[in-house]
Structure formats: C-alpha cells, structure tokens
Amino acid sequence: MGNTSDALEELLKELSHQSTRERQITTDKKGLFLGVYAKHPITNENIPVFVANYVLYEYGTGAIMGVPAHDSRDYEFAQKYDLQVKRVVKSAFGEDNLPFEDDGILINSGFFSNLDSKSARKEITAHLKSMGLGEPQVKYRLRDWNISRQRYWGTPIPIIHCPSCGIVPLRDEDLPVLLPTDVSITGHGNPLESSRDFVNVSCPLCGSAARRETDTMDTFFDSSWYFLRFCDSKNTEKPFDVSLVSTWMPVDFYIGGIEHAVLHLLYARFFQKFFYDLGMTPHKEPFLRLITQGMVLKRWLSVEKLLDKLGLTTEDSIDDLGLKLTLPEDPECLRSLK
Fold first, then answer.
1. Into which CATH architecture does domain 6-130 fall?
2. Helix, strand, or coil here: 83?
3. Which residues pair with 106 in a beta bridge?
4. In terms of C-beta density within 10 A (0-12 exposed, 13-18 middle, 19 or more buried), how is residue 32 classed?
C-alpha cells in the first residue's frame, strides 16, 4: 500500500497552490516516499517511488524515471533524501564530476555498456520494443502561448469589443490595421490606449460605439512565419504564393541562440505544419539544419588557447590555420583544450 499519511496530503495541498512555472524554477526540492516500488523493466531492480514538487504532470505521463547521476534536479533530490546515485554514463574525456549531463559512454548498464549515448538510446529503445514494453515516439512540448503584449511595437490584433455583440473580428476589407502615430510613449502603460481615434470605433456588426483591442501580438508570432513571407513579400492578396514558397523553401540553415531551440524554433515548426495542413506549402519542415550559437563545439574556447595548442600565433596566416584544422584530429590535443 502507498503512503496515504497526513504528510502526503499536506504536500499535495502545498503543491496545489504552486503554478507550473513556480515548480519549474523551485530550488527547494521536496518529496515524500510513497512506500511502494516500481520494477525496472530491464534489470528488474526495485525503484522507490516518490512524490516530488519538481515533477510536472504535463511532462510525459507525469511519472518519470529519475537519473540522479545525470540530471541536476534529480541529483539535488537524491542528495537531500539520501538516494542511490548510480553513474551509467561516463565522459569520453575523463570527466568524473556529478551530475554528468552530456553524452558519453555507457557504464554499469549490462550488455549496453561501452556503447556511446546516441547508439545506446536506439539500442535500449529497440530492446524495450522487442519486450513489448515501449516503442520510439516523437513528442512535441508546445505549451500554451500568450501572444498578446501591452506595447506599441507589434502587429495589432484585429478584434473589436462591442457592449452588445461581444468580441467581434474585423472584416477582411478593414484589414490591415495600421498602428496610429498620435500616441504618447511615456514608459508607463500601453501607448495605444492614448490614441482616441484608434481605440474608439464602430462595431462591424451592429454599428454601435465599441472599442478596438489595444494589445499587440508578440513579435515571435510574426517571426514564426516570416521566412515564408520573405518568399513573396509584395503580395497584397494573401500571405504568400504557394509556387514561390515551393521554389525558395525550405531554409538551408537556421542559426540562433540556445533559447530558440524550445521557443521560436518550435513555434516556427508549428506554423509550418499548420500551413502544410492547409495546403499552402509542400514542406512539412521549414529548416533543413540547425546551428545554435555558442553550441557548435558545446563549449567555449579562447582563440589564443586554440592557436597555442595548434602551434600557431596571431602572426601566422589564415592558410596555416586552415591547414592545421584540416589535419586528422589529435585526441590528446582535443582533451587538452578542455
């Protein structure tokens, strides 16, 4: 039987008053052992089951496998509650600090030991599938997205608020909505609220006095599909012509900061798939390759240190550097650059 004590009820009550965002950023890891164990599907080991404040029901099935040696949050939790920390991935460069969160070589993993992380993920998934316990799936973590902002810059939201008709969308012939120029930008409040001509309008349905929506769209909303608009930026009849998009898309390289990998990139892919379902583009994906700034080598490296290890100086030519960089990799040199 699981732990149904007052302590559990108290913890659940506390968690019910915290938002998902608060639980994501919490530094104080709290949990309670339920008195039950899960069976490891491959090793048959008993795994203690905890309720924890940093585990979110929106993620996966809401019940996850903790990996304290290779996840900083799980590591903090295991340290606090004196749980076993079993290293199953080691660094190819000899790092031994925990938690180790990069890819590496599997250890303490039975017949999966000595595989690299990428190969191991495929092999373990295939093994679970052969046992009838799982299969590979692609999961999208697209969260609810509040696209409105209380600021001047941004695309106006074409909505009218009528006391009689409620929320009314503008007619196509009334588009586009242009931002007014008679605004007061003070640094406080929404500048669009200061333009009476912009705010005070007639309802498109009943003609009575109404108010225009003054929030503008988040700029991510526009940049999530502007690569498609770039293919046909002069079109005044529709967002873009399918034939032109078919010619120019998809984009060869997407280059952006690390924060884009779970924000703009995911939204842009959502828009692309939305347009694909509408038959407005023949491509399911908008980008062929992703290069994340600062993550090409997964670590920062000073130019001076690189030149020193290559036996070069700032006085050497670019041709000398090119020759050095095209030589076969020296593992010892690579390790020393860390």
1. Alpha-Beta Complex (3.90)
2. coil
3. 89
4. middle
Domain ranges of the chain: 6-130, 148-219, 237-292, 303-336
What tokens were used for 14? 């506390």
Least confident window among 114-128, 192-206, 299-313: 299-313
Q: Which two tokens stand for residue 265?
A: 């990139």
Residue whose C-alpha is closest to residue 271's, from 244, 241, 239, 293: 239
Prediction pTM value:
0.53
Q: Which two tokens stand for residue 47?
A: 């795994």
The pLDDT of residue 106 is above 50: yes
* More confident: 308 or 84: 84
pLDDT at 59: 66
The predicted structure's pLDDT at residue 282: 95
Query: Cβ(78)–Cβ(84) under 8 Å?
Result: yes
**Alpha-carbon distance 157 to 215, whole Å?**
7
Rounded Cα distance, 199 and 84, in Å? 62
